[in-house]
Amino acid sequence: MPIDINSDLGEGMGSDAAIMPYITSCNIACGGHAGDDLTMQKTIELAIKNKLKIGAHPSYPDPENFGRLSMDITLEQLKDSILTQIETLEKWVSLKGAQLHHIKPHGALYNEAAINPTIAKMLVQILKLHYPQTILYAQDGSIIAALAEDQSIKVEYEVFADRNYNDDLTLVNRKKPKAVLHRPEEVLPHLSSMIEEGKVKTLSGKFLRIKADTICVHGDNSTALEIAKAIYTLINK
């Protein structure tokens, strides 16, 4: 396909196998916000069967809040948790005869890495020291993407098919109205602008430049399968 389509999987939503034929890479929950050894193994096996690129999807260690809230823990504790999560997934990926293709933070960790230099630097250090050949999935205009490129870490710029954007290219907070798009008829024009024109329409109505190497469909969206099918059709028409 001309552009990568990724989805966050292994999160217990029950739709992973159905979504996989319509994507090209997956980000597998590795024990922070969701997932355990069994779900990681099952998801990896499905990914290999569907010939998908496999990525780690580390998070704040907070399954109670699905990794969507920042935690009051030290930077060192967070770093240790993230490294353990990635190492655990990588172990199973290797044992299944595959390779770890990319790393994409989840939820609050992803959003903070976009704007918080301390969090961004810590994540880039993990990549630089432990996974220098592994690709980072990150947003255009984010602090973590800029730091990663400075450290010669390859970045694939991610856009979100089912999320609205603020004027600073951050994602609209999920607690706010219209943060999440659920209907394919909303998603497709939103996405077409990003991949065909390199512009995203923000919630305020502005059109801003944005880089799009990979498209995310959130696996926990109630209409994720419908959206993935619609995007697959759009990309391959």
Q: Can you describe what's shown?
A:
- The relative contact order is 0.15.
- By secondary structure, the protein is α/β, with parallel strands linked by helices.
- The mean pLDDT is 95.
- Strand 1, helix 1 and strand 2 form a beta-alpha-beta unit.
- A seven-stranded parallel β-barrel has the order 1-2-3-4-5-6-9, surrounded by four helices.
- Helix 4 crosses helix 5 and helix 7 packs parallel to helix 8.
- The chain contains eight helices and nine strands.
- The longest helix is centred in the middle third of the chain and has 21 residues.
- The chain has one domain: Glycoside hydrolase/deacetylase (TIM Barrel), CATH 3.20.20.
What's the arrangement of secondary structure elements?
Layout: E1 4-9, H1 16-19, E2 25-29, H2 37-49, E3 53-57, H3 75-95, E4 100-103, H4 107-115, H5 117-130, E5 135-138, H6 143-150, E6 155-160, H7 184-196, E7 199-201, E8 207-209, E9 214-217, H8 224-235
Quick overview of this protein structure:
This protein has 237 residues and is α/β, with parallel strands linked by helices. Helix content is 40%, strand content 17%. Its EC number is 3.5.2.9.
Give the spatial strand order of the biggest sheet.
1-2-3-4-5-6-9
Please identify the structural class as seen in this structure. Answer: alpha/beta
Largest sheet: 7 strands, parallel, barrel
Number of strands: 9
By CATH, the superfamily comes out as: Glycoside hydrolase/deacetylase
Low-confidence stretches: none
The ordered string of helix (H) and strand (E) elements is EHEHEHEHHEHEHEEEH
Report the CATH architecture: Alpha-Beta Barrel
CATH class, named: Alpha Beta
* Spatial shape: globular
The tally of helices reads 8
CATH topology: TIM Barrel
Q: Could you say how many structural domains there are in total?
A: 1
How much of the residues is beta strand, in percent?
A: 15-25%
Radius of gyration: 16 Å
Termini separation: 11 Å
Helix proportion: 25-40%
Global mean pLDDT? 95
